[in-house]
User: Fold these one by one.
Assistant:
Number 1:
Amino acid sequence: MELEIRAFTKDRIPDVLDFESRLRKEEDFWGWEINQAYVSAVERSFDDRSFRDCVSLLAYDGGTVVGRIDASLIASHFDGSKKAYLDWICVIKSSRHQGVAQRLLESLRQILKERQIDTLIALTAANEEAQRFYKSVPDSVMKDIGIWIDIK
């Protein structure tokens, strides 16, 4: 596998949509539809200043996206810290266990280090495969409990 990690930019949306479609063919349990509303929201995000603190990377193998990682930078007056939140990391099933997720995470960590971010916070997926991956991440500790609160 010849991996190349690239920033997710607006011109790469078609590559990501192809990735999303292939994800659904291999595993059909994703919680959102690839429809025009989704595509429009992603397109708008690249022109919206509130997304300027996002880091999104794509893993390409032979010109095709096989993995993706997305994080947001968080600044808090609580303790004057800057952290990052890992929003999503996903590798297409047929490319798993080949180091793709590790390379994406390594690339993200390097970008965060350059931006003087010293902590990456993540909610982990509950499935067994994801749990094994997160437990294998160097310099990580599972702690606290995540909660999702809907704003209505």
Note: The two ends are 44 Å apart (CA to CA).
Number 2:
Amino acid sequence: MNNKTDFLIGKCLVAMPNMTDERFAQTLIYICSHSSEGAMGFIVNKKIKKFSFADLATQLPITPLQPIAPLDLHQGGPLEKIRGFVLHSTDYIKKDTMVIDENIAVSSSIDIITDIAFGIGPKENLIALGYTSWGAEQLEREIKNNDWLIMTPNTELVFKTKDEEKWQKAIDEIGIDINRLSTYAGHA
């Protein structure tokens, strides 16, 4: 990966069926930043089961006038699991928002959590606690080692598809039969 056009910003990593790291088995990771210095993204298909958005709101200084609508939280990755990020539609842009592409942005301020709680946040959102990160050339090595497939996601996949269906749907959108994939990478 030699030039900026090779970077994976706005793409998804799809874990290969033979992923040996249990934290990433059957995951779909949305890449928010990628450069020669490394990469960062969020797992978008693993819910946090024992902690909800309402639980999060009660721990923050947020007091909505109405009960908070049920909303799932996601395990964004194994790093800094108490740090929150929101992947969201670009209809909501604030000063701390990082726009990834024309459809998806990421924010990490308490303002977006407050706005979501009050029903005035972005139309589409996915709240992640924690993140995934790779050092310089680490992700490139993992791709060469056949750990990940790369695909261009749409907002339907990221925000509206059921979490338990996202990985398979990503595989289907790539157009491959995972039963025919080799678990070994070839190098000429």
Note: The beta strands are 12-15, 28-35, 38-43, 73-75, 79-89, 98-99, 104-107, 125-135, 148-151.
Number 3:
Amino acid sequence: MLLNLLQGGDMTQIVLTLLTTAFVVLAILPIHECAHAYVAHKLGDDTGKYSGRMTLNPMRHLDPIGSLSLFLIGFGWAKPVPVNPNHFKNRKAGMALTALAGPVSNLIVAFIAVLLLRINFQIAAANLNYYYGALYDAVYTFLYLLSAINIGLAVFNFLPIPPLDGSRILCFFLPDRVEEWFYRYQQAISLVFLALLFFTPVFDWVLSFVQTHVFDGLLWVADLPFRLFGMSAL
């Protein structure tokens, strides 16, 4: 992300991107990880809670490399929340629901950002005297980046590749024997995935395609109440 901006973005765009990404690192990644710990707690596993991870305090969650990666390329991570599947009544369902909580929290934040984006547009469309162009542009850029980063985090984490959340969701649908094989070779699977991610455009195409359609879908939902009242579409 920042690497691309440094090649062609203006200073205002770079500053807004840095501020938005810092907000995601300090506020959104903790929500993602806290969601894992909270759902695990509700399902019977207090490992994350007793490890101090059922909190929004960013210092409990941040991973330096994952935070730097989010600034540089737009994808990042925090420290994974420890989970003991033996504490769940249903091990596979417990792991899947706990994993699902993280990316779902990102989608909720993305929807809120898109809804605020829609409201921001409506304020500008009303031609209020105190709402100047520069302010609109800054708010628009912040909210758009916030929604895009959260959608990116959700889509990325839904990939069924260890150790991403999607791999635990996938295992819920796999027979035990296949699940055992999957985890036995998860390191090799992860290496293949990383090679495809960094050395081929395949995942870029897939992720970009899905992100665009998720954003359009959230915008369509956020736009519904405004359309009902005959307001301008975004």
Note: DSSP finds ten helices and no strands in the chain.
